[in-house]
Design goal:
2 strands; 23 helices; two-stranded antiparallel ribbon; mainly alpha; single chain
Length: 708
């Protein structure tokens, strides 16, 4: 297998992604052996992921599949991806081993194990994503496959919780898609390389891309106030699915926020995207405090652990906020964040697995299971010698570095809030073991399989928590330091750091004292007690919620009445407008008809005038032709007259006689005799003039006679 990895590690990544999906298909044909198929696939995936270390330790591995869905898929694995993938494969193995002992019932086991393997392939795809587009694709596949796990029981409560999870997952996916499209439109790629300088150079506010990505990943991570699905889904799921969700699924959201933070963080002091760091700090500390307080109020074990997960994710956001603001000196904050991510996955998933075995009473070793649960709770509470103590200590040192870099009242307040959140963690851990678990009295059920492999897994997991807490420098050198250096950061605060010094024990002692005091006060009336009435805080919360719900209902009614009134007014206005419009249309129709009739009449008149004018032209032409013919006849008579006169006088006709002073044929100029006047040679013009003079004379005569 090592030779295969050296030749084509990208091919091995593809096999790791496809093998769980092939196993999911095989689960449906395996009938009663679906458990063994899921267990075998989980073991193979774990072995192949661990085998990638020989290549990842030398260089990051990338494999591109162009043309897939247009943009193509890019698979990549570096130290961070390999560590999270190994963690996921290890926890999947434990869930498969313990599922027969911790599931409330094993009905539809083939469907459960098929969905479990489908989710495993999707999670491996998320951690092996080389760009945002590939991560988005596997993110959506993971949401759909994990939905089947949530509704596995088929109860109305599980279906309602699954619908809430699915709706919010779709909304988060749409936010991711919007951020992805915006990033691609601005930069022309979707890779995880730093993009802050490109956005600033083009005048694009980085928040336009970072905000939708934070919302999309924040829904899956369960940060405040995007945590609503967790508090509804966890009480409706089995302990195995809760372990899967709290241990791995919400970490995929944190992984997306971590990758986005790396892409939007410039390590030069002038280019730091400070707004992103401040937002992460505020959201993180809000999740820490509110989640811890709400966990202390819960009466249900799974609800308590759901709020606990919200609180612990807040620590991760606080570390990422410090990583953003510290710039080149942020290696300590980044290392603390990734280490606490791994530690929280281990002790929270282990706690769910152990509690699942305890509360379903399917084993004969209740004391052993309680011991394993105590080990996991020690990591959750951050007690010395457990892994949670190491990562929380590093996070607290990162808070100190942040205060040293930006000394102000707000950084001091942030440090005190961190201390209070740790004390509240002690409170709800004590409530879990002192108050809630002893109230459970369930019958012991014979386990369907031998418990020793599952018991061995819990023992290895509990021992690993103690080993990571007692000898933390091993994981720091093996995995945390390479992750930090691969990101281009130095290792200040990580080399030679001392975890078990005097200051650490003083802070831990103060946290335990404050947490114990708050727990004792809560047992005397501050916190809720199972089987009893609410005390002070719970009654105040109930009254507040009742007042808020009443106000919401009242405001809803007012808003509903207002909307109905507005719709009524709009309807009346629309009817009035439609009536006016219809009247205008009728008036316009009548006007168009009148204009049409007038146009037709005018056209008919124009045509009649043209016909009359044509007739007049025709008559005028006939008259002109007649006058021309008569003139031609008169000219003919005149010519005949001239010819007759010329014959009688023996001379030339006036038409052919030479002009005055015209030369003779011999060339000598002859002077013609002046024309001889003939009183009988008058023309038509002379006759007309004579007739006019005669008429004028008659007028004078008549006028004169009349005057007399």
């Amino acid at each position: 297998m090592v030779g295969l990895i050296d030749q084509s590690p990208g091919l091995l990544m593809a096999v790791i992604l496809l093998l769980p999906w092939v196993g999911a298909c095989a689960c449906y044909g395996a009938r009663q052996r679906a458990f063994w198929v899921a267990l075998s696939v989980s073991v193979l995936v774990l072995i192949m992921v661990l085998a990638l270390f020989s290549t990842v330790s030398l260089r990051p591995v990338y494999r591109e599949f162009p043309g897939v869905l247009g943009l193509g898929l890019i698979l990549g694995v570096d130290y961070l991806d390999w560590g999270l993938a190994s963690l996921g494969a290890w926890l999947w193995l434990g869930i498969c081993l313990l599922s027969p002992h911790a599931l409330e019932h094993l009905r539809h086991s083939r469907r459960f194990y098929a969905a479990l393997l489908m989710t495993l392939g999707a999670v491996m795809g998320v951690f092996f994503s080389g760009d945002l587009f590939t991560l988005f694709l596997f993110f959506e596949i993971m949401a759909l496959s994990s939905y089947v796990l949530i509704i596995h029981h088929g109860s109305p409560r599980a279906l309602a919780a699954g619908n809430t999870y699915l709706y919010l997952s779709i909304a988060g996916g749409l936010c991711l898609l919007f951020g992805l499209f915006t990033l691609y439109a601005v930069t022309g790629h979707t890779s995880w390389e730093p993009v802050l300088d490109q956005l600033v150079a083009q005048g694009i506010p980085p928040a336009y891309v970072a905000a939708p990505l934070l919302v999309g990943f924040g829904v899956k991570a369960g940060i405040m106030p995007l945590h609503l699905w967790m508090v509804q889904v966890y009480p409706a799921m089995s302990f195995m699915v809760c372990a899967l969700s709290s241990g791995i699924l919400i970490k995929t959201g944190v992984y997306g926020i971590l990758r986005t933070t790396m892409a939007f963080t410039s390590y030069g002091r002038e280019g730091v995207f400070t707004g992103w760091g401040v937002v992460l700090l505020v959201l993180g500390m809000t999740s820490v405090l509110v989640g811890a307080v709400m966990a202390s109020w819960q009466r249900n074990v799974r609800s308590l652990l759901a709020y606990s997960s919200i609180s612990q994710v807040g620590y991760l956001l606080v570390g990422l906020g410090a990583f953003t603001l510290l710039g080149q000196e942020s290696g300590l904050a980044l290392g603390a964040s990734v280490l606490h991510l791994v530690n929280h996955s281990l002790f929270k998933a282990g706690l769910f697995l152990a509690l699942g075995v305890i509360l379903t009473r399917t084993v004969r070793w209740p004391k052993y299971s309680h011991l394993m649960a105590v080990f996991m709770a020690g990591g959750l509470a951050g007690l010395p010698l457990f892994n949670g103590f190491v990562s929380k200590n590093l996070l607290h040192k990162a808070m100190g570095a942040l205060h040293y870099e930006f000394p102000s009242f707000w950084t001091i307040l942030l440090d005190q809030a961190f201390f209070l959140g740790s004390a509240l963690t002690i409170v709800y851990v004590l409530r879990l073991f002192v108050v809630l678990l002893p109230q459970r009295d369930l019958p012991v059920v014979k386990p369907p399989l031998s418990f020793w492999p599952a018991g061995l897994y819990l023992a290895v997991l509990g021992g690993g928590l103690v080993a990571l807490g007692s000898f933390p420098h091993g994981i720091l050198q093996l995995w945390v330091a390479p992750v930090v250096t691969e990101s281009g950061l130095a290792l200040p605060g990580l080399e030679g750091v001392s975890f078990y010094d005097r200051g650490a024990f003083i802070k831990t002692g103060g946290t335990l004292l404050l947490g114990g005091a708050l727990f004792v006060l809560g047992q005397r009336g501050l916190w809720a007690k199972p089987g009893k009435d609410y005390r002070l805080t719970e009654r105040a919360v109930d009254y507040s919620l009742h007042i808020m719900s009443t106000a919401v209902v009242w405001m809803g009614r007012i808003l509903d009445d207002g909307i109905n009134w507005l719709y009524g007014k709009l309807a009346v206005g629309l009817v009035f407008l439609m009536e006016r419009t219809a009247g205008m249309e009728r008036a316009l129709g009548g006007g168009y008809d009148s204009m049409g009739k007038g146009s037709r009449e005018a056209l008919e008149r124009v045509l009649g005038f043209e016909n009359s004018l044509g007739n007049a032209y025709e008559r005028l032409g006939e008259t002109a032709r007649e006058m021309t013919e008569k003139t031609a006849k008169l000219d003919g008579h005149r010519d005949k007259s001239y010819d007759a006169w010329a014959n009688e006088s023996g001379g030339d006709s006036p038409r052919t006689s030479r002009s005055w002073g015209e030369q003779s044929p011999t060339g000598t100029e002859t002077k013609p005799s002046p024309p001889h006047f003939n009183p009988f040679s008058f023309t038509i013009s002379v006759l007309v003039v004579a007739l006019m003079l005669t008429g004028l004379l008659l007028v004078f005569l008549i006028y004169g006679l009349g005057g007399w």
